[in-house]
């Protein structure tokens, strides 16, 4: 059991490090500089990739929440938790890079644009989910409660997107067109290659962090169990 | 250009931060394991 | 289904009778919402004409803040004497507990709204010109959504020691789409703009209500098992 998992870890690591360097090379040197926005447009690659991973992590949380309702296991509980933690990190990155990009492109830190606000609310739901998990009590109880909250949160995200989109189009003119990247009229093929490569790299990073986090969390669990066993032994 | 620098600084800082948190957890684990081993040797 | 409804009404009646006797929660909620109005009148000068624009938002701020107080109590109060365990082991469907609590909270919050919204209009010297039926319909739809999801999360948060702090953190992000709809629809009705826009917001809110009611109704069983 231990051998293949260590092998997967090593393979991920071996893939991840060169992929990261290649994607950095692609972003900063290989891909062309956008004419209108200049060099700041290069934020876009990691911004989109982290946003993608943020949503991916969220759906992983939702998936394990549904499974946990069926039958709560420690494995599923840990996986949902680590995915949520990584989700918080990536959502924060998405928000901050989005704000910086907004500042450089449209000279404003924040616009009430549907995707931006959806990501912000996604962040709040993630944090609330982690708060639920921090509750005191047995893990079975927390597993059930957090699973229920995770599912409700998952249902909410698409509705938030729809509501905000509606709110914007009814009240304000849509200033920036349909997509953020469309001010240049679509994505150039070179940029698309870089973007796809970056998405792949960040997804690999997510998988790698996920495996590491799960491993550490499982070790923690084993140590805690061993500790309580020893304490019992000493007490008796 | 300054914005580009700022954005990537934030990205790397946050990723490093999370990896640091993971590392800290591992360190805490090591400490607890040491305590456990000490107990075992005392017995 | 009929049994669930009957049990739910029994639980709601119990809560409401209890409230009628003590008048603690409803009294607090009314006083609190009046105080919020007072604070807002300091924050935004009521004699200023532009303040009219924030009235729809204020209605919902008051409702949510005072509603949170009531929601916090609805499950915490059951923990005294371990009444919640009694409810759980009672030979009733867990969904009827949820339904009963929703009905009780809805009645409570509606009563508070019936007092606090006129107080708001009065203190801000706001003349109501909109269509009253549509206004009431919008307020009711949004309040139902708020209470459904609020009651559910109150039951969840009641398991934590710091449930009063946990509930708003859990509830507010989930309420955001409903609040966008509620504020927009209220604004449209109060400013007598085209009613068709308000209807589409109303549809969004109704869809939200139905979706979350169904989800909470089925998930409540797991919530009761878990706690």
From TrEMBL, chain A:
Its main location: membrane. It is found in: Membrane. Keywords: Cytochrome c-type biogenesis, Membrane, Transmembrane, Transmembrane helix. Residues 14-172 form the Cytochrome c assembly protein domain. One of its GO terms (biological process) is cytochrome complex assembly. GO terms for cellular component: plasma membrane. The chain crosses the membrane at residues 12-31, 43-69, 81-102, 114-132, 144-167, 191-210. One of its GO terms (molecular function) is heme binding. It comes from the Bacteria. It is a multi-pass membrane protein. Belongs to the CcmC/CycZ/HelC family. PANTHER family: CYTOCHROME B_B6 PROTEIN-RELATED (PTHR30071:SF1), HEME EXPORTER PROTEIN C (PTHR30071). This is Heme exporter protein C.
TrEMBL record, chain B:
Keywords: Membrane, Transmembrane, Transmembrane helix. InterPro entries: Put_ccm. It comes from the Bacteria. The chain crosses the membrane at residues 6-23. This is CcmD family protein.
């Amino acid at each position: 059991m231990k051998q293949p998992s260590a092998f997967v870890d090593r393979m991920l690591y071996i893939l991840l490090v060169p992929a990261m360097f290649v994607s950095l090379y692609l972003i900063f040197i290989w891909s062309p500089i956008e004419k209108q926005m200049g060099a700041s447009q290069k934020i876009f690659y990691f911004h989109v990739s982290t946003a993608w991973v943020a949503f991916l992590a969220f759906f992983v949380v939702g998936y394990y929440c549904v499974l946990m309702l069926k039958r709560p296991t420690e494995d599923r509980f840990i996986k949902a938790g680590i995915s949520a933690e990584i989700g918080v990190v990536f959502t924060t990155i998405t928000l901050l890079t989005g704000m910086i990009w907004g500042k450089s492109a449209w000279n404003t830190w924040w616009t009430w644009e549907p995707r931006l606000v959806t990501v912000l609310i996604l962040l709040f739901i993630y944090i609330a989910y982690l708060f639920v998990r921090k509750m005191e009590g047995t893990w079975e109880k927390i597993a059930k409660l957090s699973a229920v909250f995770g599912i409700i949160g998952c249902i909410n995200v698409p509705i938030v997107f729809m509501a905000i989109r509606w709110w914007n189009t009814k009240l304000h003119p849509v200033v920036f067109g349909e997509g953020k990247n469309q001010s240049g009229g679509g994505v150039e093929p070179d940029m698309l290659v870089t973007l796809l490569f970056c998405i792949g790299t960040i997804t690999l990073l997510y998988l790698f962090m996920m495996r590491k986090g799960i491993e550490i969390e499982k070790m923690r669990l084993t140590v805690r169990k061993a500790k309580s066993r020893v304490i019992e032994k000493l007490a008796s | 250009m300054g914005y580009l620098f700022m954005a990537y600084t934030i990205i790397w800082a946050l990723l490093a931060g999370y990896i640091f948190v993971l590392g800290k957890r591992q360190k805490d684990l090591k400490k607890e394991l040491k305590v456990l081993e000490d107990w075992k040797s005392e017995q | 289904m009929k049994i669930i409804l009957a049990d739910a009404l029994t639980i709601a009646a119990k809560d409401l009778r209890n409230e009628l006797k003590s008048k603690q929660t409803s009294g607090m909620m009314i006083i609190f919402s009046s105080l919020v109005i007072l604070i807002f009148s300091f924050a935004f000068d009521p004699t200023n004409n532009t303040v009219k624009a924030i009235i729809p938002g204020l209605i919902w701020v008051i409702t949510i803040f005072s509603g949170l107080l009531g929601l916090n109590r609805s499950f915490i109060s059951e923990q005294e004497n371990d009444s919640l365990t009694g409810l759980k082991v009672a030979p009733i469907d867990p969904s009827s507990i949820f339904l009963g609590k929703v009905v009780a909270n809805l009645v409570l919050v509606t009563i508070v709204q019936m007092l606090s919204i006129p107080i708001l209009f009065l203190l801000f010297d706001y003349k109501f010109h909109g269509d009253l039926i549509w206004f009431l319909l919008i307020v009711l739809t949004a309040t139902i959504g708020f209470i459904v999801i609020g009651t559910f999360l109150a039951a969840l948060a009641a398991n934590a020691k710091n449930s009063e702090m946990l509930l708003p953190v859990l509830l507010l992000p989930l309420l955001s789409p409903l609040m966008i709809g509620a504020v927009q629809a209220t604004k449209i009705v109060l400013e007598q703009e085209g009613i068709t826009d308000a209807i589409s917001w109303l549809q969004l809110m109704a869809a939200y209500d139905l979706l979350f009611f169904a989800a909470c109704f089925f998930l409540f069983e797991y919530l009761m098992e878990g706690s």
